[in-house]
Amino acid sequence: MAKTKNLLNTDRPLTIEEAYAARPRLWWLYTLIVLIIAALLGWSGSAVSYKGLATKGVEIARGIGNGLLHPDASLLFNLTSEGVPYQLLQTVAIAVLGTLIGGVLAIPFSFLACDKIVPKWVALIFRAIILGIRTIPSLVWALVWIRVTGPNAFCGVVTESVCSIGMICKMYINAIEDVDTRILESLDAAGCNSFQKIRCGMLPQIIPNFISTVIYRFDINVKDATTLGIVGAGGIGAALIQCMNSSRWSMVGAYLFGLVVLMIFIEIFSTRVRNRLARG
Questions:
Q1: I need a labelling partner for 223 at 20 to 30 A (CA). Which of 85, 88, 119, 173 fits?
Q2: pLDDT at 142 over 70
Q3: Residue closest to 259 by CA, chosen among 222, 221, 214
C-alpha cells in the first residue's frame, strides 16, 4: 500500500505496470455483485418448475419443422385473400400505418415531455402519460380496441399506433435531450424566436435519429402485427393460428416461410437506411 502511495505521489508519468499496480482494489464490490446476482438467480429459479416436454408439444414442434421444410407451394403463390402474399401485404400495411401514425403523434408528445423546452411540471405530466402507454402490453391494447373497432385490420392499426407512441417518444426524448445547446444559445443571441430555434437549431440534429427510430419501430411492428392477428386484429397471425389449431403444418410452413423472407428483406432495407443516416 505504501508503495502504491509513493507511485501516486511522484511527478513523473506512470508506466503501465505502475498504473496497474495503483488501480483501485474493488474486489469486495465485485464479490458483492456476484453474490447479489447469484441470489437473484436462485430466487428466480425457485419460481420456475420444469416438468419435461409435453407429448403434444413435441408433436407440434415436429409438425412445424416439417411444415417449414415442406411448405405449401400453392399457398405461397396464391394471390387471393387466403394466400401468403395477401396476408403478408396486409401485415406490412398494418405495420406501416401504425408506425407512421405513431411516429407523427409522438413528435408533439416528445417536445412536451422534454423539460428543456417546456416547464418541468408540464414535462412530468406528459412523461407520465407516455409511461402509462408503454406499461400496457400490445396484446392488452388489442383486446381493448377490438371491443371498439371489432376484429379487423383497423384494430391492428390503432393498436400499433398507440403502442408506437410509447416506445418512439422515449427515443425521441433522448434525441432531443442530446441536442447541442450551444447552437440554440447562438440562435437566441441572434434574436430568433422559439419556432425558429426548433426549426434551424434542433431539427437538423434530431431528424436522423427520428428517422432511425421510426425504421427500428417498423421492424418491431411487423412482428407485432403477426402476433396481434392471433387475437383478431388483422394480419397473417389470424391465418397462422387457424392452421396451427387444425394441424395443417404445410400451410403453417408456408406462412412462416413468407414471414422469414419478409423479415430478411426488411432487415436488409432498414440496415442500409440506418447506415446511410449514420454516415450522412
A1: 173
A2: yes
A3: 222
